[in-house]
């Protein structure tokens, strides 16, 4: 008989690619993870992982079992949801991981809605970038992620997750007031090819949006300054350190002294924001009201 706990460990190893990283995510020791993998291999009668200097990869048998593990773990989430509903499930704590702007735009308003509509639900919030929050959901560190589409993100049909679209927003060009294009009504990304750039670090989903926008315009941006804090990005632009593309909502209520903000000419770079829970948990009586409140809060964002 295969233990579900070991299937969860197998999935964590597949996601993180090393025993050490999987162990840290699961709050286990590396030796405990290795022991559980060995026990799972004994239960199945197949070698499931291959270890190398670059990390851990699944064997063909491991990939087969991983597909079943995703289905089994999703079904267990559904079972927990139905049992919680049977026991009323109208009170409890839901943990949400979201990036800073997402917290301001949708998570905080959703908390206000829930306080009136479902006062038994307490929401605990953790600040996490859009890529990190999905891993936190899969590792059961949080219940809900408010995340951003990015290269390498799990697909919409990923068997591990259920995604709920929230909103999409364009990026605007942020230029120093003395920039040669400061008086333009709109700015083409291609016209900024020769400029130094300010942007988020590699790994931040917004970094991907900026780099892809420049690639589509036919050049690789010369990123000279890095910050994941858009206030810092705008401050650097105001010091004429470079140009930037910034999500429109991040510019709201920000001190824009020293910069001009212009819409992007043509198809604007866009970040698409969604909520995600583990597959099978979407109808949990605690999570469903939270997802609904997030969708309602996102509606004005378009």
UniProtKB/TrEMBL annotation:
Transmembrane segments: none annotated. The keyword Isomerase does not apply. Residues 2-59 form the HTH lysR-type domain. It comes from the Bacteria. GO terms for cellular component: protein-DNA complex. Keywords: DNA-binding, Transcription, Transcription regulation. GO terms for molecular function: DNA binding; DNA-binding transcription factor activity. Belongs to the LysR transcriptional regulatory family. This is LysR family transcriptional regulator. The lineage of its organism: Bacteria, Bacillati, Actinomycetota, Actinomycetes, Kitasatosporales.
């Amino acid at each position: 008989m295969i233990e579900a706990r070991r299937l969860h460990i197998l999935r964590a190893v597949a996601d993180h690619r090393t025993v050490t990283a999987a162990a840290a995510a699961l709050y286990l020791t590396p030796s405990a993870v290795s022991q559980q993998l060995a026990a799972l291999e004994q239960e199945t009668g197949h070698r499931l992982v291959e270890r190398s200097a670059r990390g851990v990869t699944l064997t063909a048998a491991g990939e087969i079992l991983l597909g079943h593990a995703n289905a089994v773990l999703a079904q267990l989430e559904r079972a927990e949801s139905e049992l919680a509903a049977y026991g009323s499930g109208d009170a409890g704590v839901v943990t949400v991981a979201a990036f800073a702007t997402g917290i301001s735009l949708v998570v905080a308003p959703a908390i206000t809605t829930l306080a009136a509509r479902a006062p038994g639900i307490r929401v605990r919030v953790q600040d996490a970038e859009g890529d990190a929050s999905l891993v936190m959901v899969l590792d059961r560190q949080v219940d809900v992620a408010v995340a951003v589409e990015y290269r390498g993100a799990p697909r919409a049909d990923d068997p591990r997750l259920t995604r709920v679209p929230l909103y999409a927003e364009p990026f605007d060009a942020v230029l120093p007031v003395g920039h040669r294009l400061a008086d333009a009504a709109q700015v083409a990304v291609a016209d900024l090819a020769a400029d130094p750039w300010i942007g988020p670090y590699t790994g931040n989903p917004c970094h991907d949006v900026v780099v892809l926008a420049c690639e589509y315009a036919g050049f690789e941006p010369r990123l000279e300054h890095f910050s994941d804090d858009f206030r810092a990005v705008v401050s650097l632009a105001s010091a004429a350190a470079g140009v930037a593309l910034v999500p429109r909502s991040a510019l709201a209520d920000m001190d824009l002294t020293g910069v001009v903000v212009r819409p992007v000419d043509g198809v604007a770079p866009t970040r698409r924001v969604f909520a995600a829970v583990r597959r099978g948990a979407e109808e949990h009586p605690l999570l469903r009201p939270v997802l609904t409140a997030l969708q309602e809060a996102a509606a004005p964002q378009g």
